[in-house]
Design brief:
- The protein is mostly helical.
- The protein has a single domain (4-148), classed as dinb family like domain (Four Helix Bundle (Hemerythrin (Met), subunit A), Up-down Bundle), CATH 1.20.120.
- It is built from 6 helices and no strands.
- It has helices at residues 4-22, 27-30, 41-63, 82-89, 94-113, 125-148.
- The longest helix has 24 residues, at 125-148.
- The two termini are 24 Å apart.
């Protein structure tokens, strides 16, 4: 996953893999508090949607010739951000959280698709962003969901 085409393909594959697990979860189980650590699956999706939204803005800034992170913003400690992402999305059902997450993924995918192909490469900013927000992040939470579902995946 270094060029634009392989990066976009990896994003699509990561989403499909995550969707395989999410498709096995109904509303009752998706809203169950404590399903994934302290969170419900809906809250997990809110957390992921928060990062997608935040990084879509960062990619849009890159595409406009600006630095991705505004002055004074630090993403290095996700634990500083995660609770806020869930809180700002409020009380959503599993289906609402999933729909918002799906929309966030599509927006991020579209923004990444507009990045100049020359900006992609090993350890390049855009590749690190995609890994952190999609490919590695989705895999991490796929493992959580697999455990929640009893490890049957």
């Amino acid at each position: 996953m270094t060029d634009q085409t392989s990066t976009l393909q990896a994003m699509t594959e990561a989403k499909e893999s995550l969707d395989e697990l999410l498709n096995r979860i109904d509303e009752a189980h998706g809203s169950w508090e404590g399903a994934v650590g302290e969170w419900s699956v809906a809250q997990l999706l809110q957390h992921m949607h928060g990062w997608l939204t935040e990084m879509t803005t960062a990619v849009e800034r890159m595409n406009a010739g600006q630095r991705p992170t505004p002055e004074g913003v630090d993403y290095s400690n996700p634990e500083d951000w995660n609770p806020g992402f869930v809180a700002e999305r409020g009380d959503q059902t599993y289906e609402e959280a999933r729909a918002a997450f799906n929309e966030g993924h599509e927006h991020f995918l579209a923004a990444v698709g507009k990045v100049d192909p020359g900006r992609f490469g090993e350890a390049k900013t855009i590749n690190r962003m995609v890994e952190g927000v999609v490919t590695h992040h989705y895999a991490e939470h796929s493992e959580d969901l697999d455990r929640f579902l009893g490890g049957a995946h």
